[in-house]
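Lab notes, practical 5.
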Amino acid sequence: MDRLDAMRVILAVVDAGSLSAASRKLGAPLPSVSRKVSELERFLGTNLLVRTSRRIQLTDAGRDYVAAARRIIADLEEAERRASGEYQTPRGALTITMPVEFGTRHVMPVALSFMAQFPEVTLRIATADRLTDMVEDQIDVAIRLGHLADSALYAVKAGEFRLLTCASRDYLARRGTPADPRDLADHDGILFGTQPMFWTYAVDGEELVCAPRTRMIVNTAANNLAAARGGVGVARLFDYQLTDEIRSGALVPILSDYAGDPRPVHIVYPRQGLLPLKVRAFLDWAAPRLRDACMRFDCG
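Output from the prediction step:
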């Protein structure tokens, strides 16, 4: 029996919550996963898991063994990273996750320049507009937009962005320019998503809900931009989505005095033991360049 392999299997079962889920996570047949758990229990002479129809539970011996297995696997992976020279020069695979549009527009250029500077690092890019479990999904670095929830992750602030209200020059020429968020009641608007129109503004020290009439509903930022450029009505988008349109004059920011506080951009990463040099190199490279990119968003 390969004891290290057995440790990894039992950890996968515990973390996934069931034998079948661990089978999918490991990409291994379910009978193989079940057999390895049984072989480990026979080798140890004790039950590690209590199997029920819905889930598995650890026995007292299982809790102790799993805690020890986690330490052993972590120490082994740390030793492997040291032996491979990962702490001496930036090298190896670096997995980065980022929001789809912000990542495509603003993080990818930084990532490409990082690759040119550090040729021994291989990047694995995953774009998704949802939070991922960085430890479970083995992600080294994530770009997060907005305020962070309390977590065990480390974070480096890499800029700010704002939510802007805008419309085309043609629309404003036809319908007039709102001077106060409450004026939006007399305007048409573009709704992003499927929820009722719900826009908030800071007015006279209070947060007010002020929204135009829904004229069009879209589910992508690209369609939101296209509708706004086409003069359908007033739209709300993030400044990082609007830089080109505002600079070209295709869209005009309005109600900028009521936009509210900016929201942060963070680079986050888990910290377990020494920080691999590839992660440190990316943090040092990306943070100032993203800050510079975010400063150019200020077009409201």
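Observations recorded by the TA: The chain has nine helices and 14 strands. The mean pLDDT is 87.
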